[in-house]
Amino acid sequence: DGVKTGAKTGIKLAYKHAFAPVFTSDGHPDASCPASAGQEDVPSWTVTYFNEKEKAMDNFFEGLSKYGIVPVIVLHRPEDARPLAEALMRGGLPCAEVTFRTEAAEESIRIISEAMPEMTVGAGTVLTTEQVDRAVNAGAKFIVCPGFDPEIVDYCIARDIPVLPGCMTPSEVGQAVKRGLKYVKFFPAEQTGGPDMIKALAGPFTTMKFMPTGGINGKNLEKYLALSKVGACGGSWMVKADLIDGGQFGKIEEMVREAVEIVKRVRG
Q1: 141, 182, 185, 209: the active-site residue
Q2: End-to-end CA distance of the chain
Q3: CA–CA distance, 231 with 228 (Å, rounded to integer)
Q4: What is the pLDDT of residues 176-204, one digit of tens each?
Q5: Which of 12, 16, 54, 97 is catalytic?
Q6: How far apart are CA 48 and CA 105, in angstroms?
Q7: CA–CA separation, 136 vs 93, rounded Å?
Q8: Of 87, 71, 140, residue with least CA distance to 109
Q9: pTM of the predicted structure, to 2 decimals
Q10: Which residues, including other chains, have CB under 8 Å from residue 223's CB and lie 6 or more apart?
Q11: Edge-first strand listing for the sheet containing 183-186
Q12: Across the strands, what pairs with 96?
């Protein structure tokens, strides 16, 4: 019943965004508007439509989860974007989360997306809807937020943009479930209980999977990947800023290969 309720809420939310002029602020038809006269809260034709949208988002994150690791990157110079992406690809990780912590983020995403379209590149540390637009226009395929910002999450859902909001409490995960999401970022992972906290959250939220990020490295990666409710882990230990700034892309490739081997060992 909880899953059905969450899915229906997600459908109502997306429908409200698409047809805002005929709905009141609580999501019900506005009787004062002729276009909404006689409408139900959720018209029947939307069910199939939004089920397909939900499946598409689920499939996207299932694909991302197969990599086991999503490198979390801070780039200070756009010219480092392509050689870094090439090092990730050679190392066996055709994905990356480029964080909006620097002015180089947007252009870096654009460079990677245009030069290497086969790579799944997303934008992290997204704090505003304006950053969502900039990231997507640059070629980002998914959005990651450090916390659960309802405005950003709803904005992405309404535009079919895969989004991973940061969650660390049952209340935040519950808000994600209500919106039909099945994947969230668990952040900061090590500082808020690590694998034990993920297992505790997964108990009541049986449909949810997590991307733990924060404090994850080659030494503790295995214990996260061993959890059935973990899709992929976000990590920066193999793509540290000093390695990127120093042009040590060969070292980065080597460390990425080591991380990929851990994924293979744990998940086969």
Answers
A1: 185
A2: 34
A3: 8
A4: 999 999 999 999 999 999 999 999 999 99
A5: 97
A6: 37
A7: 21
A8: 140
A9: 0.83
A10: 194, 195
A11: 166-167, 183-186, 209-212
A12: 121
